[in-house]
Amino acid sequence: MNKYRLTQTRSQLLKLLKNTPLPVSAEDLLQKVPVNKTTIYRQLTSMVAQGLIKPVLFTDRTLRYESADRDHHHHLICTNCKKIIDISFPENIEQTAQTSASAQKFKINTHHLEFFGLCQNCQ
Amino acid sequence: MNKYRLTQTRSQLLKLLKNTPLPVSAEDLLQKVPVNKTTIYRQLTSMVAQGLIKPVLFTDRTLRYESADRDHHHHLICTNCKKIIDISFPENIEQTAQTSASAQKFKINTHHLEFFGLCQNCQ
DNA sequence: TGACTTTTGCAACTAAGTTGCAATAATATA
DNA sequence: TATATTATTGCAACTTAGTTGCAAAAGTCA
Q: Domain range spanning residue A46?
C-alpha cells in the first residue's frame, strides 16, 4: 500500500533535486520541468512529508529545497552575486546554546544558521 | 536638512517598536496603529534605511522587525506556541566559521542563527 | 481488463507586499 | 505668521508566491 506514486513528473523533479548540489526553488523547477506550478508545489509538499527533501528558508525570503540525505551543513551566501556555498560548522552549536537555554527551561531541538559575505569573485 | 520627518504615525510606530521586547510584524503594527498598510510598509522600509530598526526573517516565513540598538543576540522559538525568547550565544561564531570559509576564499560579514524547540510550558 | 486511488492541469482565489498619483502634513524661509 | 517646499499619507490597482476545488488523466493492483 504505497501512498506515493512514482509518476513521470515526480521522478523528474526528484532527479533534479538530487542532482543539484545547492537548494532549488519552486521557480527553478518550474523553468526546468514542463509541468504546472500547482503540481510543483504539491510535489514539494509531498516530498517534504515523505522526508525526501528539506525546505530551507533563505534570509532573502526565497524558499528552497534540498535533498534530505545530506549531512548537516550550513550555507555561505554571497550578498553580491547570491552564490551559495556549503560549509560545515565544526562545533556542536546546539549543545553550546542549550547551556544558555536551560536557564529558561527551553529545550532546543534544531537550529538554523546561515552566513553572509563575499565570495572570491565579488571581493 | 532632515530627510526624515517625525510625523504622528512615525512616532507611534517607533514607540511601539522600541517598547516591544520581541520582533514585531507589519500585521502586528497594522492592528495597533490606525494607519494604512501602505504607510506601515513604507515606514518600516524607511526606518530600516535610517538604521533605527532591523528586519528579522523567521523560519516560519514571517518578517519581523526589532529595535536596532540591541546587542547581538539570537532567538529561541517555541515550535508549539511560537513564543520567542532572546538568547545570546557565548562564542564568536563568525570567527569559527571563517576558518572553514577561508578555504574557499569566502569573506564572512554577518550571520543569522535561530534555535527551535519547546518552551517550558509546551514541553 | 477493470476498479480504485492518486496525480495533474486549469482557473479562480488568497495574502503579503508594492506602485503611481493626488491630497495632506511637516518643515524651512521670508 | 504666511508661504513655499518637500516628505508623508491614503487610496485603488497591481504584483507575486502560493493555495484550493474540481474534473480529467495516469498509476496501481487484483
A: 8-67
